[in-house]
Amino acid sequence: MAKDIDWSSLGFGYIKTDYRYTRAWKDGKWDEGGLTDKAEVTISECAGVLQYAQTGFEGLKVYRTKDGHVVAFRPDLNAERLQSTCRRLIMPEISKEDFLKALDELIKANIDYVPPFGSGATLYVRPFIYGSGPVIGVKPAPEYEFRMFCTPVGPYFKGGVKPIKLLLSDYDRAAPHGTGNIKAGLNYAMSIYAGEKAHSLGYNENMYLDSGTRTYVEETGGANFLFVTKDNKVVTPKSDTILPSITRRSLMIVAKDYLGLEVEERPIRFDEVKDFVECGLCGTAAVISPVGLVHTKDGDIKFASGMEEMGPVISKLRETLTGIQMGEIEAPEGWIHRIC
Fold it and tell me: What would the pLDDT profile of 195-231 be if each residue is shown by its tens digit?
């Protein structure tokens, strides 16, 4: 039976559910792992995650479809991206099979927290790995823990799909040849100060430029960019220092194969931004949210789509992708992982 939750009023926040999945790595191998009802974590005061931020995470969503199934959207790509993060941070990897097994067990145990179809809410899943063993020198931790929990959520940005305002940041998000292309916790810690500064000035997020030349558009603190040209071409930044968003990759396929639009992934100079007619932020949490303006020291860049509603291309992209996720539109092969 579904939990007594006002699904339509949910924000993007944490609600404790009944179970979470946990698995420990010690003496060179993973244990069997399993579900627990304990949401608290006990680790050494000298744990690698506390001393040197050795941790990586993922984010994915689970949906109740129109025909009543409970599904996840492309979780195999989340498993692969987490493996990439682990390799870069010298942490043990979780196999794709074990990742999907943990996901299935977690969702079935918390099935009553999956929001109803059409409620506007989803079940957000957060898998993560961290160094749990003690380490005082700068080196990999001797022990690790993999955990996965879930929580029902509403829209990432307040107001749902109403256009948001961005601030061109004076800060850098990631260094060249650094860790910007993996989902490491330290990347997000780097963006918190700049993010709070933007919020205090009345903006929803930052637009970051490349830190090497401050010439090219990168991403925001937690989402990738999509732009639309005057002739309806969908363009997204290409860079070695931005996170390879699963949602962005999916939207580019949707644009090309479902909507028949021309797509392009390439470096985008900041001085080009004023020439685009639509802009969207895309990611698991946000899906795709329209951007109305970008504030710079030289004034505001205002997109033709305006601040009242999302532009036609961004709107169609969102409508099509969410239709695929919710089972209303046929998905490409392998995109939908049915849990039950």
Answer: 999 999 999 999 999 999 999 999 998 899 999 999 9
Give the largest Cα separation in the chain, rounded: 58
pLDDT of 4 = 87
pLDDT tens digits along 260-291: 999 999 999 999 999 999 999 999 988 899 99
Give CA separation, 248 vs 43, 88, 244, in Å: 36, 22, 8
Three-state SS sequence of the chain? CCCCCCHHHCCCCCCCCCCEEEEEEECCEECCCEEECCCCCCCCCCEHHHHHCCEEECCEEEEECCCCCEEEECHHHHHHHHHHHHHHCCCCCCCHHHHHHHHHHHHHHCHHHCCCCCCCCEEEEEEEEEECCECCCCCCCCCEEEEEEEEEECCCCCCCCCCEEEEECCCCCCCCCCCCCCCEHHHHHHHHHHHHHHHHCCCCEEECECCCCCCEECCCCCCEEEEECCCCCEEEECCCCCCCCHHHHHHHHHHHHHCCCCEEEECCEHHHHHHCCEEEEEECCCEEEEEEEEEECCEEEECCCCCCCCCHHHHHHHHHHHHHHCCCCCCCCCCEEECC
Q: What is the pTM of this model?
A: 0.95
Residue 286: C-alpha distances to residues 32, 156, 290 (Å): 34, 5, 10
What is the rounded distance in angstroms from the CA atom of residue 224 to the CA atom of residue 221? 9
For residues 155-163, give the mean pLDDT: 74
How many angstroms separate the CA atoms of 319 and 323, rounded?
A: 6
